[in-house]
Amino acid sequence: MVYNEDDYLLLSGIQHFAFCRRQWALIHIEQKWEENLRTVEGSILHERAHNEKLSEKRGGVITTRGMAIKSSVLGVSGSCDIIEFHEDPNGIKIFGRRGKFIPLPVEYKRGHAKGSDADRLQLCAQAICLEEMLVCNIERGCLFYGETKRREEVIFTEELRASVHKMMAEMHAYFNRRYTPKVKTGSFCKACSLQDVCLPKLCNGKTVESYIKGRLEETI
Ligand code: SF4
């Protein structure tokens, strides 16, 4: 199946979806957004990655910043913080450049490496877009973490790729139904920028109506 461009979702949404499906729906379906320290720090890092020179070559590596990407198979569009094209005889040709190159997507993140797969899924989705656009195979990419200032290599295994396809299909299904899942709280809520919008304590396991009814009964 391929998606029509009108139905493309934002690629970066996959990290929200992996973190909490309700958070993704609040941001991408209901268009609610709250900034906290984490999102502000994240934006600053991304601005730095995007604002420098668009393309430069050092040694055998061409570095491109803020390249727009898309995939009709995943039905997404977005951009890559950085793509490094490493000279390699097994790579692809690039217009206006001599030699062949293998693309390496690099995504900037605040903080340090997390236990969840959210960042790896986003990076793998970027690689799937690049493979479709450049007609090539990309085996690996890197996540750069602002706190540790280190790169973590990510191998795009069949398992990780399958998870990206499955999650994107789920996102499209939710979006088509304009479905916002109910609250399922966890310790991860502490890091959520939408706590005040989501109202986890109010909604968890209750409808707003039953909550108000309960509060009214308490006051009678
Ligand atoms: S507060 Fe918790 S349940 Fe609500 S959107 Fe955020 S992470 Fe999800």
In brief:
This protein has 8 helices and 7 strands; from the N terminus they run βαααββββαββαααα.
The count of domains is 1
What separation lies between the terminal Cα atoms?
58 Å
Task: Please state the overall shape, judged from the principal axes of the Cα atoms.
Answer: globular
Q: What structural category characterises the helix and strand content? A: alpha/beta
Might you state the CATH topology name? Answer: Lambda Exonuclease, Chain A
Write the topology of this structure.
Blueprint: E1 9-10, H1 13-19, H2 21-28, H3 37-51, E2 55-58, E3 61-71, E4 76-93, E5 100-109, H4 118-134, E6 140-145, E7 150-155, H5 158-177, H6 195-198, H7 200-203, H8 208-219
Parallel strand pairs: 1-4, 5-6
Antiparallel strand pairs: 2-3, 3-4, 4-5, 6-7
The protein binds iron/sulfur cluster.
Iron/sulfur cluster binds near residues 22, 185, 188 and 192.
What does this structure look like?
By secondary structure, this protein is of the alpha/beta class. It has a single domain, classed as Lambda Exonuclease, Chain A, CATH 3.90.320.10. Helices cover about 40% and strands about 25% of the residues. The protein has helices spanning about 15-20, 20-30, 35-50, 120-135, 160-175, 195-200, 200-205, 210-220; strands at about 10, 55-60, 60-70, 75-95, 100-110, 140-145, 150-155. Helix 1 (about 15-20) runs antiparallel to helix 2 (about 20-30), helix 1 packs antiparallel against helix 4 and helix 4 packs across helix 5. The site of iron/sulfur cluster has 14 residues, from helix 2 and helix 6.
